[in-house]
Amino acid sequence: MARGISALETMPVSPYARLTRAILGVLAGAILIFLYLPIVFLILFSFEKSDSPGFPITGLTTHWYEAMLADSGIHTALLNSVEVALVTAFLATVIGTMAAFALVRGRTRFAGTGRLLFTLPIMIPGVLIGIGLLIFVRRALDLKLGLHTVVAGHLVFTTSFVVLIVAARLQGFDRRLEWAAADLGASSRQTLRYIVLPLIAPAIIAGALLSVTLSIDEFVITFFTIGPQLTLPLYIYTQIKFGVTPEVNALATVILVVTLSVFAIGSLVLSSGRRFRRREAG
Amino acid sequence: MDSILAESTPTSAIELRHVTKRYGDTVALDDVSMTIEPGEFFCLLGPSGCGKTTTLNLIGGFIPMSSGELRIEGRMVNDLPPHKRNVNTVFQNYALFPHMTVAQNIAFGLRMEKLPAAEITSRTGEYLELVGLAGFDKRLPSEMSGGQQQRVALARALAKRPAVLLLDEPLGALDLKLRKHMQTELSRIHRQVGTTFVFVTHDQEEALSMATRIAIMSGGNVMQTGTPREVYDHPAGRFVANFVGETNFIAGTVTMEDGRRVFAIPGRGRVAAPTGSTDGPATVMVRPEYVRLRPVDEPAADPGISGRIVNVAFLGDHTRLTVSTDAGDIVSVRPHATNVRSTHLEEDLGQEVCVWWPADDAALIAD
Questions:
Q1: Hey, where are the domains in chain B?
Q2: Tens digit of each residue's pLDDT (9 = 90 or more) over B312-336
């Protein structure tokens, strides 16, 4: 039925509409270039032969990627980052999913407040989270800083994202599916396992993947809460103090590709879940 | 015959005794008692908010009752959770599991029973066949039409071989043609499996066409229970008469005139009163199909009620005429077959006519 009628076709249009549209188009293009050009340069310079990247390009090479792979400092930083990201993603997903269940399903009067409190950290500046945790851990608890405190810092905001995503999914969940499962002889545990979890799995997986990407390139909170170790973003920062080397460009390019891939997988998983939803409506 | 039948079926499929359901201060079900016998196609009929779906949900075990007693096959099930009751439900919007294929949907209940795999496969096939969906086992619910999803839901519930199948307005989402078709299908399936069906609907036609017995509900009470013919021909009161089919209610007085009882309306209208009437103010109910019209000048023993045709609606198989009289509008319905072809009689808008009906085709009702 919806034959995709554009509003512009059915409305009488002002004589300047064509011109306005053209100008807006150019503007949009310029903004997109502004958004992506730096990243394009980053990628381009990572293949630059000269060790002080800049124009003109003197030649292309994959040398910096080899150098990057051979660099033990990068290895350590990478391992630290991956470790933090995986532990963070796991904990954030478990905690966030449980919280989402409580907020959506729990018959508590504080559901609204709880939801706000669980998602507010997204809005709190990282500097505040970082300093707050630093003071708390050092002064109140008198613990040593290290990767575990970084995980704690990352959990503060990644958990919020998981809560948001999983709660949205649970909100749209047709409770009658659970009635149907119970009707067919499933206990509440079986209903959770065979009906609810499979149907909200896309949201849980997306939350986990998002946590990984958020954690792996987090800088500010990490900077305040880490001990003597380095994560990838911190490593890049320390390298840049000595001038931008093409090796850092190569590293940044790799991070970019990996992050975008994880994000793409997450979106795919979520959209495969949406297919089910449409079914329920049909 | 009643006593013999009653002895051969000692336990009812479902028995509600003084069941009440309250939501806060609102009473959804008010001291309802009913008995549903094994093998019945029992229909709960009523407008929205009458308590019919609440009744179904109580039987299914999805909501707790406030007071009363519920027995399924003689066993008290008041406190049993849904998965421990020998009833299964076809939900309003089917509630098929979207991430499972048709076969997996049907097999789900059997898997929960921990039946052997071979038994699950054969039963799944058997019930797919029963609902006419053989060969659709690998489809996802989203790849099927509303009518097909409906059949899957039916097969899924029936595959558990429950004592009672509950159906919550299962045809509500289908279009008219498909609904008619599924009514016939449901009746066939009911005859074939012999399970007790309890069916909730607000559509009186659906109830009349499929049910063996109907309970008409309103405001949390059962107004009348009976076979479709009983509730249509002998409605227990104004509500039932109005809800099941269309009815003319005409207020007037029963008096003796010339040695016989007549029903007189304010003004000059008079018709013969139904047998057994007593003198005094009364309301008569008469179905539109019993209301007859004749020309005003035609001589008759019964004076009838004079009026003017104010609306003629030709509806294909029948014509619906509205006659304005001193007693208000009276609706008359006449099958097409008795119209133009045989009698060449065709009433016109604005024509003066005389309305009457055979005395015993009307009934006096209490208000």
A1: 2-243, 248-365
A2: 888 888 888 899 888 888 888 887 6
Identify the CATH homologous superfamily for domain B2-243. Answer: P-loop containing nucleotide triphosphate hydrolases (3.40.50.300)
Could you read off the pLDDT of B215-229 as tens digits, one per residue?
Answer: 999 988 999 999 999
Distance CA B367, CA B365 (A): 6
- Lookup result for tokens 């309103």: B218
- So what CATH class is B248-365? mainly beta
Please name the residue of chain A whose CA is at the shortest distance from the CA of residue B109.
A184
**Residue ranges in chain A modelled with pLDDT below 70:** 1-13, 52-54, 244, 272-282
Alpha helices, H only, A11-62: 17-45
Which residues of chain A make contact with B146, given a CB cutoff of 8 A? 282
| pLDDT of the residue at A173 | 86
Strand stretches in chain B, DSSP E = 14-23, 26-36, 41-45, 67-72, 75-76, 87-90, 164-168, 196-201, 213-218, 221-226, 248-257, 260-264, 270-272, 280-286, 292-295, 305-314, 318-325, 328-335, 352-356, 362-365
Average pLDDT along chain B = 85
Q: Do A184 and B99 touch (CB under 8 A)?
A: no
Same fold across B2-243 and B248-365: no
- Compute the nearest-CA separation of B147 from chain A (Å): 11
Nearest one of B97, B196, B209, B195 to B153, comparing CA atoms: B97
In this structure, chain A runs to a length of 282
Task: Please give the Cα distance from B76 to B60 (Å, whole number).
Answer: 13
Q: Do B142 and A176 touch (CB under 8 A)?
A: no
Please indicate whether residue B302 or residue B244 has the higher confidence score (pLDDT). Answer: B244
> How much is the ipTM here?
0.76
Q: Helix (H, G, I), strand (E, B), or coil: what is residue B265?
A: coil
Q: Which residue on chain B is closest to A191 by alpha carbon?
A: B112
Chain A, nearest residue to B162 by Cα: A184
- Min CA distance, A96 vs chain B (Å)? 23
Using CA atoms, how far residue A15 sits from A11, A18, A20, in Å, is: 12, 7, 9
Is pLDDT above 70 for B158?
yes
Residues found in chain B: 367
Q: Which residues of B touch A279 (CB under 8 A)?
A: 96, 98, 140-142
A-chain residue closest to B155, CA distance: A184
Nearest residue of chain A to residue B81 (CA atoms): A182
Interface touch B109/A184, C-beta < 8 Å: yes
Residues of B with CB under 8 A from a CB of A: 60-62, 81-83, 87-89, 91-93, 95-99, 108-109, 112-113, 140-142, 146, 149, 156-157, 160
Where residue B102 falls (left for φ over 0; alpha for ψ -120 to 50; beta otherwise) is alpha
Determine whether the interchain pair A181/B97 forms a contact, defined as Cβ–Cβ distance below 8 Å. Answer: yes
Tell me, what's the pLDDT at A147? 83
pLDDT digits (tens, 9 = 90+) for B80-125: 888 888 899 998 888 999 989 999 999 999 999 888 989 899 999 9
pLDDT, position A282: 34
